[in-house]
Protein 1
Amino acid sequence: MLDSLLEKYGVKKFAKFAKYFSIFASLYFMLCAVTERAYKLGLIDIHLKLIPNENGIISSLLNPNYWVELISQVFFAIAIFNCATLFEKISTGEKFTNSMVIQLEAIGSNLFFGFIAAAFIQPFLIDLFRGVFHCCRIGFDNQNLLAGVMGALLFTIGKIGQKLRVELDEIV
């Protein structure tokens, strides 16, 4: 399906669409992450209406678990936003340059750090703030594993691309 879209509209037009889609996805991703955390804290109901809270909204937002659970989401949103930057370079017709390689590395590292945060750091900090210590609680799930593997892959491709670019520049 993507091949037919690329043939019909061309790489530049598709990349321009993908840039705007990535920006929208990044903003939507963070909005969903914030509202999901607010729902879990009991600040809003299923229809996104504020619920009167006896502790007050500010004290609920001061709950460290609210912020800890957003750590990985921030990395993932930055990775999506970095995709928009890369798509912008492609849509303008820029050749495969070091700036594109740097964007690949940034996307990969943010995805991988998001995985590390979701799988290891967040479970540890949540237990720490609750006063419960589980020595080996790990937050593996399919999405986090996929993000980690794809992040490592993109980072590695970026490093290989950087080496190839240096070799190409030495030849020319």
Protein 2
Amino acid sequence: MIAALTGVPRMAILAAMNSRPALAITFVAALLLAACAEKSLLVGYEENENFLSFNHPFTDAAAADVRVRAERICGLRKQAVIQTSRACSLEQCTTNFQCIDAADAAKYGR
């Protein structure tokens, strides 16, 4: 349940929505917009492969978030992570990473 509605009886919410259809539409729209909050999706990852692909918003915070997530995933495999590519529109980015052995990362200056 939405934090702002904690403690409000559900019946009161339903009664308000039934008596005011515009309120119901506004409530549903607010829920849908909340679902569109900044999210980063891991869209490409195979357990036996070493490539990661993320779709995320075009923000510095989202770019840092996917970098941390890639480092965590590669760290589970005891490997280092390098960013191989990044392509962005005005709103979304796709960033690709590769998990490689630490010796290879040092060898290539990463």
Protein 3
Amino acid sequence: MRVLVENEGTDRWLIGKIHSADVTNCKNCMILLNEKIVCLRTARIIETDAAILFRLDKQIEEAQTEHDKIAQQIDSLDKALEQGY
């Protein structure tokens, strides 16, 4: 997201603020996903039912995929800021 203003210095400042907020939100999501993955793995350790184990495996896989997508999003935001967008 780029905020257009007349002053280039202000423009970069606003872009930096928006970038910082986006990265902070992404990092907060990653923290929550890490906690979710730990909880799912803990539940998997004590579970014996095959159907529930399968479901837990799928939930862990989905959470890890989402975690990876957010990490890529943070990288994209960083690259966009470096390029001045």
Protein 4
Amino acid sequence: MSYFRGDTYLWSDGEALHLWTRRSYSPANESYSSGVSIPEAVMDQFATMRFAELLQNGQAHAAIKASLESENSGSACLRMHSPALLDFIDAFETRRSSDDCRSPPINRNDP
């Protein structure tokens, strides 16, 4: 999967997510392109947590629509699953509470 937007390019090789930008985002590299590779398993966990935040904040529907409009190579899989995802989001948003996601985590070992 790859994603290109403006000066930012992201792609996965199956083991790591690679992020590159032509624009400097730090005084340390004012005139250079920069990039980083992050293990895909770490990014999967981040993406899952970020999706939960988008759900909680009521932003998931808009994020999916914006991703579909980008028509990057990763959007084909999203396009295929978007009807079910959007149905899930709609059902979730109708019962979403105002709970704060920053509350202490649930201990799964508690009875």
